[in-house]
Design goal:
Blueprint (H helix, E strand, L loop, with lengths): L11 H11 L5 H14 L4 H8 L3 H20 L12 H11 L15 H10 L8 H10 L4 H4 L35
Helix pairs in contact: 1-2, 2-3, 2-4, 3-4
Length: 185
């Protein structure tokens, strides 16, 4: 038995826009959504639309409800998946920039960062509201700067005075002269 579907029908202007949109290259999911609305405007039920488009009836209902809530813009936008990112791009840059500086330059009484000390510094200075050590480790590893390499696992000095690159960090160069860190990647 069909579920009741209470959506506002497409206006003539929206139908014209749908036809124009269908003439251009689209992703398959965008084309399906637009065709579902056109079929509904032609008087088809959600069950008919599902059969004609070879999709589950729940997908047809979801496409029609999306059109009802967000109109044409909603049909063309991809559905966001997963949780939103917890750190912004400026926060990532700030974390990587700070990781490159020795704690002594920031007025701290220790000579090298640990994940716990660095995490506490970031929270205390309100750069982030909360971050786990594991997430911080991943941010530094993925950071694309020299910070993760400077947080080498052994912390051993190289002949050039930098940190050895024995850690598995992938943030850039093979050491940073004069910075001593003990993150394990």
């Amino acid at each position: 038995m069909a579920r009741p579907l209470m959506i506002r029908p497409a206006t003539p202007e929206e139908l014209d826009q749908l036809h124009h949109l269908l003439e251009r290259p689209l992703q398959p999911w965008q084309r399906r959504r637009l065709e579902a609305v056109l079929l509904h405007a032609a008087g088809h039920t959600a069950q008919d639309i599902a059969a004609l488009l070879h999709v589950h009836v729940n997908t047809a209902y979801a496409d029609l409800r999306l059109f009802h809530r967000r109109r044409l813009d909603g049909l063309l936008k991809r559905r966001s998946l997963g949780a939103p990112p917890r750190l912004t791009a400026p926060q990532h840059r700030t974390i990587c920039r700070l990781a490159q500086q020795p704690p002594a330059e920031l007025g701290l009484p220790y000579g090298r960062w640990s994940l716990g000390k660095f995490r506490d510094y970031l929270i205390r200075h309100r750069i982030v509201s909360a971050i786990s050590r594991e997430h911080l480790r991943r941010v530094l590893k993925k950071g694309g700067t020299r910070s993760a390499a400077s947080f080498a696992s052994s912390g051993a000095r190289t002949p050039t005075g930098g940190i050895s690159s024995t850690g598995s960090g992938s943030c850039g160069s093979t050491g940073l002269a004069g910075v001593s860190c003990c993150f394990s990647m």
